[in-house]
Amino acid sequence: MDTDLGPTGTETLCDVCTTELDRVSKVGRLADRELDLLRQPKRRINVNIPIRMDDGSVEVFPSFRIQYNTARGPTKGGIRYHPSVNADEVDELAFLMSLKCAVANIPFGGAKGGIQVDPSRLSEGELERLSRAYINEYHRNIGPETDIPAPDVNTDGRIMAWMRDEYESITGGQAPGVITGKPVELGGSEGREYATSLGGAVILDEFVDEVEMTRERTTVAVQGFGNVGSYLAKFLHERGYDVVAVSNVDGGIHDSSGIDMPALFDAYESSDDLFEFGAAEITNADLLTLDVDVLIPAAIENQITEANMAEVQADAVLEMANGPTTSRADEHLTERGIPVIPDILANAGGVTASYFEWVQNTTNEYWTEERVREKLATQLREAFADLREIKVASETTRTWREAAYTRAVESVLQAEAYRGNVARADAERSD
Ligand SMILES: NC(=O)C1=CN([C@@H]2O[C@H](COP(=O)(O)OP(=O)(O)OC[C@H]3O[C@@H](n4cnc5c(N)ncnc54)[C@H](OP(=O)(O)O)[C@@H]3O)[C@@H](O)[C@H]2O)C=CC1
Ligand SMILES: O=C(O)CCC(=O)C(=O)O
């Protein structure tokens, strides 16, 4: 199925996206046509991919690529492998990518992809066949100037390498800019592997300065110890924060005097088991309600919800995962004066470094790790400053999320207007 949606396409945005869009729409007095453009993806593609398994049987894996908004540039966003991935989830993630690229001020639209699979069940060969088959099915829809995938949950540089190779064997020639998050030896950027986390650390530093806290006395709990959570815990420890809890899908560990992160990294590398480290064990539910300065969901969506929002004791939330807070919980935290640094700012370091990778691929000029880190920090500090300015200047903007949506929606709609897709005259606006 390949759908260019008209204004009658179904809406599948999550409640927090819809709530925030409605709020921004009311304040900005957006026209119906403008809202339609934001509420639905431009193109949804889904393919059931048959794969021959090692035992000779054939399994079929549903897969998706959703290109949400193309006004600001080629679409950009990761590919997720997870048993529960579905079209609605990918819609929402693609919507968030469209806003995130605008918040980070990089010239991309937003997309997201996914395969409904539990990759831990697959052999290396099956994983490679599935990854290559995904590109085989979608190669006409992606490309360095159209839609550029990247890693997300359960995907990594090795998978990006197979995907680049498959794309080039189908299309002929070299096309390093078709995908980002590649290994450095294959045209990847220095620093991309940890950029989401480094970006999160830069944003948290800015926030801590803003509210006049000091890093040294700031305790943090990080849910998720994958690419984003583990590097973030490391960076925050190096910057002087006290990382008191971390977790993976099986649960977590807690030490109120601060976890020795280098020692944990060494232990985890060999055991792949947080519990073997010997610190007190906690559940993911416990972690989310710990009495810490900053709670950092860095795993999957819908973690702070109506069920646990009243028990959240943190003084602030840094959303490193996409969509970890539901709308009701977001409102509740706001009422209690707990600031939430939204996903589309907090985790924008990943796509920003992906943009740098794409620029390097396009110019064939490669940068040092130091240059990437400096440029990343500058870009994210500017993004934070832009949102602070909106918050300070506006009497109605209460939260960082509202500021981020305000900035992103304005930027996307300006681009749509310059393309002639919407008229931005007051006469067009509905009340
Ligand atoms: N990778 C990137 O560049 C970017 C990622 N993000 C977002 O960050 C989040 C994490 O992504 P990433 O680190 O790449 O993914 P990974 O697959 O590398 O890691 C995910 C982590 O979350 C844990 N986890 C999975 N399910 C649960 C659960 N139900 N409860 C608690 N923990 C769970 C996993 O545990 P286990 O290790 O045991 O499997 C793992 O530690 C996602 O929301 C992603 O969309 C956002 C921007 C960029
Ligand atoms: O690096 C990218 O292009 C996208 C990363 C991503 O999927 C995300 O920010 O959620």
From TrEMBL:
The active site is at K112 (proton donor). The record marks D152 as: Important for catalysis. Substrate binds at K76, K100, S354. Pfam families: ELFV_dehydrog, ELFV_dehydrog_N. Transmembrane segments: none annotated. This is Glutamate dehydrogenase. CDD domains: NAD_bind_1_Glu_DH. Belongs to the Glu/Leu/Phe/Val dehydrogenases family. Residues 189-420 form the Glutamate/phenylalanine/leucine/valine/L-tryptophan dehydrogenase C-terminal domain. InterPro entries: Aminoacid_DH-like_N_sf (IPR046346), Glu/Leu/Phe/Val/Trp_DH (IPR006095), Glu/Leu/Phe/Val/Trp_DH_C (IPR006096), Glu/Leu/Phe/Val/Trp_DH_dimer (IPR006097), Glu/Leu/Phe/Val_DH_AS (IPR033524), Glu_DH (IPR014362), NAD(P)-bd_dom_sf (IPR036291), NAD_bind_Glu_DH (IPR033922).
